[in-house]
Amino acid sequence: MHLAMPARKSSNPPPYATRSTRFPMLRRSRVQAIVLCACAVGAVLFILLQVLGGGSERIPSGTPSVVIVTVLDTESFKQDYINKIKENRIEYAKKHGYATFFPAATNYELNGSPPSWARVPAVRHALTKFPHSTYVWYLDQNSFIMNPDLSVEGHIMNPKRLESLMIKDHSIVPPDSVIKTFGHLKGNQVDLVLTQDKEGLAQGSFIIRKGDWSRFFLDTWFDPLYRSYNFQKADTHALEHIVQWHPTILSKLVLVPQRTMNAYSPKDAAGDGTYKDGDLVIRFAGCEKGGRDCAAEAEPFSKQWKTAFRTQ
């Protein structure tokens, strides 16, 4: 009986059949059409988002362009005087569509630092509270806004106007600091506007533009290290220090003539810094010292600003 033997496999088997990797023409056309349609839809959506404001920050309707911040010392001054200060800011803000913010100095933990430091976290607070506003104007308590016709944007922050006001190549700390203001800044590059008095930087009235730089600046100014230095003039000398040692801060700062937004009463000023009728602000910068009475010094100007506002 013969058993069938399995056929021997050839030592040269035929090559495996290969599968074509080419797309049929019809399939390839469909893929191309789908890709082109997807690109077209994406382009249309992008354009619509840009037109409707999706490509930039959307500012809610009614957002105030400026927030006026004044830190109030409710423990050392009578309520009647505090109310006059608030009324002054509120009336001016109503005229121009601005907002006001009146935190108390005691709202902020200063860890034993002088109360004047409260202005820094107060401005930082305002930037958070009014995230869509363009500017924060900090104005010390012992002062009045005197000219209701002058707006922050038109009188100071308009780029062309600001360029005409800038004090260029000027010593940060008078009379002969080697660190000077920049000479080539354009108005739209400025994020901090300050003035000087006869002693140095005067931070009782300043304007800051919202943004990453402003938050960096305020956080640097309020650094616990600087507050622990016990500078003779607290936050004033700390400000002068960081402006001179941090080019990033100096590069966004300009000085403007003192009377632009920080004129002093005759008791506190000298020369070009003395208040004159028509100026935006009068400040009673030293009235807290030497037994002076801030409310009494301010009273004649309280009547004057109310008369000016009523005639508008």
Structural class: alpha/beta
Estimate the strand proportion: 5-15%
User: Whole-number average pLDDT?
Assistant: 86
Helix content: 25-40%
- Radius of gyration from the alpha-carbon trace, in angstroms: 32 Å
- How many helices does DSSP assign? 10
**Count of structural domains:** 1
Largest sheet, described in full? 6 strands, mixed
The first-to-last residue Cα distance is: 130 Å
* Number of beta-strand segments: 9
User: Which segments are poorly predicted (pLDDT under 50) over 5 or more consecutive residues?
Assistant: 1-9, 16-21, 49-55
The named CATH superfamily: Spore Coat Polysaccharide Biosynthesis Protein SpsA, Chain A
* Sheet with the most strands: spatial strand order: 2-1-3-6-5-7
Q: Label the overall shape.
A: globular
CATH C-level category: Alpha Beta
CATH topology: Spore Coat Polysaccharide Biosynthesis Protein SpsA, Chain A
What is the string of helix and strand elements? HEHEHEEHHEEHHHHEEEH
For the record, the CATH architecture stands as: Alpha-Beta Complex
Task: Tell me briefly what this model is.
By secondary structure, the chain is of the alpha/beta class. It has helices spanning 25-51, 79-96, 119-129, 152-157, 159-165, 212-221, 224-227, 234-245, 247-250, 294-310; strands spanning 66-69, 99-101, 135-139, 143-145, 192-196, 201-209, 253-255, 263-264, 281-283. Helices cover 37% and strands 12% of the residues.
